[in-house]
Design a protein that fits this description.
Length: 423
């Protein structure tokens, strides 16, 4: 399905016109489609209908309560990376027994909160972390269900900044330390060792790295079983890409077949942590043209969204599709689409072919549902922009605009400020 299409000449989210929405809530704003979220979840679940895995939505991709709740209502659990995300997932109705806790830096407070909440599993990324979890579990008189996140030493073939499966990365336990980690996981007090977890990177388009990683994982399971260690669960992480630039997408059916062929015979209970795949295509960032600056060397379309609202192009060199909200068959110009932030990096991308747009026109930045609002900041004295969810012909503001005045209310002057001013 495509939730975003032109209806009566205006780009719409389901049947809500983005022009009407912009008039209603002001720009820029994120808009999410409920139907697309549901369809994305269903596609993933259908691909693994036989296995009935635990599908833990990676909340970091988009932590809006409405998004988590929509996916939870479809049956999703959550993959969290902090206790803040746990609070969000629980508040959105995810059952604690469907939550896995990932991340290299879980601290004592977070481990305590996770054990008290009774999460499904903590994915452990180092030996010191394993020891700390055991200590906290003993202090609380609870058993901590743990999986060891294996670093399979695989090049994921994605952006450098989103690759996590190579051995120089901070993520996971490197193969040379796994023996010690498994021994500790099975002997330290109050740990229940459940199995292995893995996540090789994000926006991975090729099945090759997954194949290598799964084969290494399968071998590990067999080896440890031979040594008498019980391995019940495998958490395969997330990482599948979406076609930002119309590029090749790792087919879900092929990915599922790969999982089935390589890991199926092990009869482990499977879990996945998809983020981008569930929410990326379900969101757009809608922005208004502030100035159409036709310079001698280039045409700059200066829009009212900036790198603080969507940092992916500046941070990873990612390129999102950009389209006019008003359908147009007029001839196209070549534009660099930029934001208002005082950074050269505030560039959505060069050489977009778009109509001859003018101040006041609207554009929509596609596939902005994942790692968009979740990574936003208020840099350059900017408001945090609203998030709107649509369903059919209805819409709801699921996060309102947070003005600069409101942000200033979070701050306080130090007590000596007044006398310093007077002096
Ligand atoms: N599980 C773990 C342990 C992860 O670290 C991640 C993503 C996921 C699951 C979800 O991965 P996904 O299915 O979304 O690829 N900000 C970057 C992406 C960073 C991903 C971090 N970890 C971006 O905008 O592309």
């Amino acid at each position: 399905m495509t939730a975003f299409s032109y209806r009566g000449g205006a780009l719409s989210a389901e049947s809500v016109s983005l022009e009407a929405l912009a008039a209603e809530v002001g720009t820029p704003f994120y808009v999410y489609s409920t139907a697309q979220l549901q369809a994305n979840y269903k596609n993933f679940a259908d691909a693994f209908a036989g296995e009935k895995p635990l599908i833990c939505y990676a909340v970091k991709a988009n932590a809006n309560q409405a998004v988590i709740q929509t996916l939870a209502a479809c049956g999703a659990g959550a993959d969290i990376t902090s206790i803040g995300e746990m609070e969000r997932a629980l508040a959105a109705g995810v059952h604690p027994e469907k939550i896995v806790f990932s991340g290299v830096g879980k601290d004592r407070n977070e481990i305590t909160a996770a054990l008290i909440a009774g999460l499904h599993q903590l994915n452990v990324e180092s030996i010191p972390e394993l020891r700390l979890i055991s200590q906290v579990a003993v202090e609380l008189g609870r058993t901590a269900p743990v999986a060891l996140r294996v670093n399979p030493d695989v090049a994921a073939g994605t952006w450098d900044k989103t690759a996590t499966g190579h051995k120089e990365s901070k993520f996971g336990i490197e193969p040379a330390q796994l023996d010690e980690a498994v021994k500790l996981a099975t002997t330290l007090p109050d740990l229940a060792f459940k199995g292995f977890a893995m996540h090789i990177g994000s926006n991975v388009s090729d099945h090759g790295p997954f194949r290598i990683a799964f084969e290494r994982l399968a071998r590990l399971v067999q080896d440890w079983r031979t040594c008498g260690v019980t391995i019940e669960r495998l958490d395969l992480g997330g990482g599948l890409n979406i076609p930002y630039r119309g590029e090749k997408v790792a087919s879900l059916a092929d990915y599922a077949k790969l999982v089935r062929d390589i890991l199926g015979p092990l009869n482990c209970k499977l879990a996945f942590e998809p983020g981008r795949l569930l929410v990326g295509t379900a969101g757009m960032l809608v922005s208004r043209v502030t100035h159409a600056k036709k310079a001698v060397t280039k045409n700059f379309l200066i829009i009212d969204a900036g790198m603080n609202d969507l940092v992916r192009p500046a941070m990873y060199g990612a390129r999102h599709g950009i389209q006019p909200v008003r359908e147009s068959s007029a001839s196209r110009l070549t534009w660099d689409v930029v934001g208002p932030v005082c950074e050269t990096a505030d560039l959505f991308g060069e050489a977009y072919e778009l109509p001859d747009l003018a101040a006041g026109d609207l554009v929509a930045i596609a596939f902005a549902g994942a790692y968009g609002s979740a990574m936003a900041s208020a840099y350059n004295g900017r408001a945090l922009i609203p998030e709107i969810m649509v369903s059919g012909g209805d819409y709801a503001v699921v996060r309102r605009r947070i003005s600069v005045a409101e942000q200033m209310g979070w701050e306080a002057l130090p007590p000596w400020a007044a006398s310093a001013q007077a002096g």
